[in-house]
Design a protein that fits this description.
By secondary structure, this protein is mainly α. It is 70% helix and 5% strand. The protein has eight helices and two strands, in the order αββααααααα. A hairpin with a 4-residue loop joins strand 1 and strand 2. Helix 3 runs antiparallel to helix 4 and helix 4 packs parallel to helix 8. The chain is elongated, with a radius of gyration of 21 Å. It starts with 5 loop residues before the first helix and ends with a helix.
Length: 254
C-alpha cells in the first residue's frame, strides 16, 4: 500500500470477504490492520489478487468488538466534496461562457475529485455491488467528458476561435484557489490528517491548487501573447489528469 487512493481499492476488495469487522490503515507505515473473524487464507488471497505486494506481518487475537466511525473526519470530507462540486458548476459554466478550455478542464478535475470523495462516503455501510456500479458509471462519465474536451481542444487548435476572456479566467481561478486553500486549511488542522482518507484528500486538494495557479498563468500568457494557445495547453494537461482520475475510479469498480 504505497498510494492513498489504493485504500478504496482495498476496502472494496475486502468487502467481498465475510467476517471482516474493521480496517485500520496506516499509510505512512504502509501497514493495514484487519480485525476479522475466521481463517486468514481467504483474506490473504483477496489482498494478493490486487497485486500490491501485500504480505502478512503478524496475527494476534483481539477482544475488541466495537468500532466507531469518526464523524468529524466524515464531516470534513463532506465539506471538501461540496466545495469541489460547487466549483465544478461555477467553472464549467464560466469556462463555456468565457471560451476558456483551462477553466472547463479544471472544472472536470474538480468533478473527478468530488466523485472519489462521494464514492467513498456514499457507499459506507452500503452493498458492495452498489459501490462498484457507482464507481464504474462515474469513471466512464469522466472518460467521456475528457474525450469531448480533447476533441474541443483539437477543434479550437485547428480552427479560428476568439481569444478566451482572460479576466474571467483569472477571477474564477483565484476564487477556486481560495476555496482549495480553505480546504487545505481544514484538512491540515484535522487531528486525523495522518490517516489515509485525509492524506488522499490533502493530495487531491494540493493538486487542485497547482492547477488553479496553472490556469492563472495561462490567462496571463493569453493576455501577453494575444493567443489562445496557452489556454489550450493548460486545458490539455488538465484533461490528462482527468483521464488519470477516471482510470482510478474505474479501478475501484472492478
Amino acid at each position: 500500500m504505497d498510494c492513498p487512493s489504493e485504500e478504496n481499492l482495498i476496502r472494496m476488495k475486502l468487502g467481498e470477504v465475510s467476517g471482516i469487522r474493521h480496517l485500520d490503515f496506516d499509510l505512512s507505515a504502509r501497514r493495514l490492520t484487519v480485525h476479522h473473524e475466521g481463517p486468514e487464507a481467504t483474506l490473504e488471497a483477496a489482498l494478493e489478487s490486487l497485486q500490491l505486494g501485500s504480505r502478512r506481518l503478524s496475527t494476534e487475537h483481539s477482544r475488541q468488538t466495537a468500532f466507531s466511525e469518526n464523524r468529524h473526519q466524515k464531516r470534513l470530507l463532506w465539506t471538501v466534496l461540496l466545495i469541489n462540486f460547487g466549483f465544478f458548476v461555477i467553472e464549467i459554466s464560466t469556462g463555456l461562457l468565457s471560451r476558456s478550455m483551462g477553466l472547463v478542464a479544471d472544472s472536470l478535475d474538480m468533478l473527478a475529485d468530488a466523485f472519489v470523495y462521494g464514492i467513498s462516503i456514499y457507499a459506507v455501510g452500503g452493498p458492495l455491488l452498489r459501490k462498484k456500479k457507482v464507481a464504474r458509471l462515474a469513471g466512464y462519465f469522466q472518460l467521456l467528458l475528457a474525450t469531448l474536451g480533447f476533441l474541443e481542444v483539437l477543434r479550437r487548435f485547428l480552427g479560428t476561435e476568439k481569444l478566451p476572456d482572460f479576466n474571467t479566467m483569472i477571477v474564477v481561478s483565484v476564487l477556486a484557489l481560495l476555496a482549495n486553500g480553505y480546504c487545505l486549511y481544514l484538512l491540515q488542522k484535522s487531528k486525523n490528517k495522518h490517516e489515509a482518507h485525509m492524506k488522499a484528500s490533502l493530495i487531491f486538494t494540493s493538486n487542485d491548487v497547482i492547477i488553479n495557479l496553472g490556469v492563472i498563468a495561462a490567462a496571463l500568457l493569453v493576455l501577453w501573447t494575444r493567443s489562445a494557445l496557452p489556454d489550450l495547453i493548460i486545458g490539455s494537461i488538465v484533461f490528462l489528469l482527468v483521464v488519470q482520475g477516471a482510470r482510478r475510479i474505474l479501478k475501484l469498480g472492478k
